[in-house]
Amino acid sequence: xxxxxxxTEDRLDQVEDRLDRVESLLASAGQVILDTSRLAQQNTxxxxxxxxxxxxxxxHSASDRVEFEAxxxxxAAALEKIDRVLDYWMQRDGExxxx
Length: 99
Description:
Helix content is 93%, strand content 0%.
């Protein structure tokens, strides 16, 4: 025959073991939540830095584009003047007799 006291003690031991496992699982889950929260915060900070970097890049890129266009127009104007001077010299030298 089974001793009712032993049976109750066995059941209590089983319940205690289960509670210990549940407590351990809850502690692990809590740690996972803390780690996930920390990683989410780091990701948010990194995304903010990336957004600032991209905004700076866009600003500098637009500024560089404006500067390049100004340089291109200035260079094109200078080349046109050089071309006109060369044309003038070629016409002038072509009209003068060699001698």
